[in-house]
Amino acid sequence: MSGYPSWDDIRNGIMCEGRDIPMLADETPTFMCRRHAEKFEDLEGADVVIIGAPYVTSATDEYAGVPKTDWLAAPQRVRQQSARYRSGYVQDFDIDIFEHLDVVDYGDADIPPEANKIQDPEIILAAQAAVEAKVNDALDVGAVPVVIGQNSPCGSYAIAKCVSEHTKGSVGVVSLDTHWDAARIDTVTMDPRIAGGSSWLHKMIEFQDNIEARHLIEIGPRGMLEHANIVRDLLKAGARFISGWHVREMGIEKVCREIDHAYNGTDAVYAHFDMDVIGGAGPAPGDILGELAEPFGMTDYEVIRIAHELGLRGVNGFSFICIPPGSAVAYRVIVYVIAFLMAGMVKARLK
Fold first, then answer.
1. Residue 177 Cα distances to 116, 173, 218, 318, 328, angstroms
2. How many Cα atoms occupy the beta-carbon half-sphere of 89 within 13 Å?
3. Which residue of 268, 289, 306, 351 has the fewest C-beta atoms within 10 A of its own C-beta?
4. Secondary structure (DSSP) of 173-218
5. Is the four-CA dihedral 193, 196, 199, 201 of positive or negative sign?
6. What is the CB neighbour count within 10 angstroms for residue 124?
7. What is the pLDDT, as a whole number, of residue 3?
């Protein structure tokens, strides 16, 4: 969308001027100027591994009424905005996260180019497998993979699947979203193997034996977007639901306490932030999300605070989709989510 600055403008701006900025590629710096892990061996010792998953579910030039190029640019633009931060010092907590955590950028998953042009099930599965390969590498060295994606399955189910397969016991799930994404089948391909945008959460529970609705907490859905039977079935199976309305009624402190639902009786936790959850309540107009925008979304602080709480408790995999396209400040929110997640991890270590 118009208005997003060029990399030259960012690089020469007051926040980046005169600094050494390591690059993944032309116009793509590493996340927060951390080291680039080019191969599996470079992950040794890493605590957090940043992975890009530029994938959009659309065979046209738009997704949800927004140009596809703006959605696909999210992993690059989040990294661009992250370069403006001078250090890992989170002044809110007097913690320098990089003094305690080895954070590396593992680049983008090798998603087939045709996956962003053709909604063919076999190609979608290949794109999913490309993300899984990098996420599995991170999990194999004991690091937390953080995937910056845009659509399912590459920015959601792929990460949940890997966490599930690396866990002997039960896996809890903390999901922030405007939509439940719990349709019985992918509405784009109608292929039962695809954990697509409308169905990934249902498919996660269907496909992964150690992920059950009773260990899921869903935060943020609201309004008249779902069929009653889908929501009621999940609630009957034990899912905890805090709607956008209830976030306001309860307040963020109580919402954060409810996160324990995903931790009680589980051996690992996967966190999924679908950033359309902020609707128009975040730092940018809701309209930039096109068809995905809904009233009374969660605020940027509420989302960042929940990420921090997850860091305090511990999380095994983390991912984003539907990052609001075109807003520099919205991309900075993603940087804050990751940084405050890591600050929580550091606090837990220092206890």
1. 23, 12, 7, 14, 21
2. 4
3. 351
4. EEEE-SS----SS-TTT--TT---TTTHHHHHHHH-TTEEEEEEEE
5. positive
6. 28
7. 82
Strands (DSSP E) contained in 66-160 are 66-67, 89-90, 95-96, 103-108, 144-149
Token duo for residue 278: 């902020």
Q: Which amino acid is at 43?
A: L
By 3-state DSSP, what share of the chain in percent is helix, strand and coil, each rounded to 5?
40, 20, 40
One-letter amino acid of 288: I
Q: What are phi and psi of 94, to 5 degrees?
A: 55, 45
Classify domain 7-350 by CATH number.
Answer: 3.40.800.10
Tokens of residue 244, six digits: 């956008």
- Which parts of the chain have pLDDT scores under 50? 1
Closest CA to 287 of 113, 64, 83: 64
Q: What is the mean pLDDT of the chain?
A: 97
> How many whole angstroms separate alpha carbon 261 and alpha carbon 271?
13
pLDDT of the residue at 59: 87
Entry pTM: 0.98
